[in-house]
Write a structure and sequence with these properties.
The complex is a heterodimer of chains A (about 475) and B (about 300). Chain A is built from 15 helices and 20 strands. Classes of the chains: A alpha+beta (about 475), B alpha+beta (about 300). At the A-B interface, strand 9, helix 7, helix 8, helix 10 and helix 15 of A face strand 7, helix 5, helix 7 and helix 8 of B.
Chain lengths: ~475, ~300
Amino acid sequence: MPGRSRDPLVRALVSALDAKRVQVGDGARRLYSRDASMIRGGQAGVICFPETTEEVSACVVAALAHGRDFVARGAGTGLAGGAVPCDEPVMVVLTRMDRILEVDVPRRLAWVEPGVVNLDLSRHLAGTGLHFAPDPSSQQSCTIGGNVANNSGGPHCLLYGVTSAHVLAVEVVLSDGEVVVLGEEEGDSVGYDLRGAFVGGEGTLGIATRICVRLTEDPPEVATLLLDFMSVGAAAETVSAIIAAGMIPAALEMMDQRVVQAVEPFVNAGYPTDAAAVLIVELDGQPSGVTDEIRRIRELASAHGARSVRVAADEDERERIWKGRKSAFGAIAVIKPDYYLNDTVIPRTKLAEVIERIYEIVEEQDLIVMNVFHAGDGNLHPLLVFDAREEGVMERVLAAGEEIVRVSVAAGGVLSGEHGIGLEKKRFMSLQFSPADLEAQQRLRSAFDPTGRANPAKVLPTGASCGHVTSLGRLPDGAWV
Amino acid sequence: MSAGDARMEDFRSDVGDSGAVCVRGGGTRWGVGGWPDGAREVSAPSGIVTLEPAEMTVMVGAGTVLSDLVGDLAVHGLEVGMEGPVGSTVGGVLMVGRSALRRLRVGTIADVLLQADCVGADGAAFTAGGPTVKNVTGYDLCRLLVGSLGTLALVGRVILRTRPVPARSLWLAGEVEPERVLEATYRPSCMLWDGVRTWVLLEGHGEDVDGTAGDLARLGLTAMEPPVLPPGRGRWTGQLSNGGVLEVGSGVVHQPDDGGLPTVSDGVRRLAGRMRASFDPSGRLNPGRDPYRVAA
């Protein structure tokens, strides 16, 4: 029982919170040692459930006083091991800080606590004509604090931008327990854009305890289009053509045949299961602009060999088209029980050739790949599906994953578009960055966290190693992409 | 090595690794945040290195005059979400860090910079960010650099996000409260209010713009060019000062003289101090300049 623990750290935490909100049992420590990825790190030390900024600060101060690291955690839906503990840290679980503190409709902003679930905020805003634009596929379970930590994306960030564009200000507990507010409710940053620097910090720069988010006007008109193609290359070329023609759809997603065939029986969205690839294109805005873009996209799609262009006739059809996209990963279990999901970005104009290369890489490793991704951003999500019980399969999965990263960077892309670096990709950072580039990033980190106690061993390839980051286990239920 | 790389190497060499140094752009807002007393002035490379319309990005020397870039992009139907005085450079506008008047459409200036090739205080070249619009690889150094007045690193070359130029733009104005104009429009590009009159910039598809203009005509708004904005700036405090024009939704008031400096908490000052010392321990980059000594 934590209340009777002899460990002075546990006693300090119990005194800062209460015995019920400090856990040290084996079950809790195992549970909070994983995120939604297959990455194994170390073990959680003490798990805390603060409910106020002051309590978060107290947890951090206690960790520091007892020479322990601290790791912030939201819903644990991360896919890069960013919240996976390494050296028995104090886990600061923020799910109890889940209040929507203030919604200012005229000024189009809201203050929320970090544990607010992404979709809950938009649901809360129903009827105001506003919504929170970042929409990661995990939005029904991921938290806004986690979105801030990962600078999360989602299909609609093609037009509206990733989380950083929607965070106006953030209250942060720094690694010495000090509380600062970074950013402004309105206007350009005063002095350095420390808010911008903090967002995407993966919990290594401090812990967000209150977040001021920008709210986006609901569009008066929305059209969802389903385009189908007999080759992946033709679909990819259509993506490039749409962007090159000066259109930025609200969302532009691609699913290849394997995904379509896995998903269609579940959602009955009317996806053509004989197509090599489908594109989901969403257009929003004012009616004439949307109508005109539908016409132009029809023409472009037809010129690039689209077999059909279907415009969702009503809300029900629109929802089914999106349901297939967003629940794609639930359907994958029918193919193989395990998967490893990658996340890289490439120049949009290289989509066709890089995807072709990914199919080759996967074939060379005798694996299966499913591609469902944010094509408009060039943000690939190749999903390697396999059965971990097969001998030697892990090595092949890791080899393919590494090669996909290398091919993406060689094509002029980047390591991660929205999942972050965490533990998963820090060993690849030197593929994209020189030692001097990484040193500049370290300077930013050191200024925020001179103690080195905030979620160490993540993001940058320097510093301590952590557990067995290359060992992949079975995926937990309910993982998302 | 491309021509752009050779020019960056010259820039690195000019910056060197010792002595107070600053980059001079167009010098149009040279006094913002203080003067770099006694610092050696260097120039950043200029000119477009690569323009990729299908990627919606452009790589450009930081010393490029912004209006030149705007002209070259316009040929391709593109624009960047940046504005500056006549003669200002891309690097200068980024380092001053003020968002464009049309920020409600084009986004804040922090969202424009994707990648920056820099020279650090130690004289080493480094790259911040990456070439793609979507990127969460490592820390967001680019956002930290925007508005830093060159006190963390000197920027020589950048990749910027471009956007399609709207098909139609129309300014309207009338003696109506801004709230009523906002209710009658969908995502206007800019709104200005001088306490009596509201100006609104509508942009998008021609028929949509005309349709909204029709709705606004019923509120009494008619086509009218925007006002000449006074030279000073202040932060919106809920009260318009005499002669001030509010940029609605952006918190900036254009006024005859600069407003007072914003208050900054001790904690943020300490963090900012650590940041500057971390990047420039010897204080050689733009000494005398302070991003916190800027009204708005």
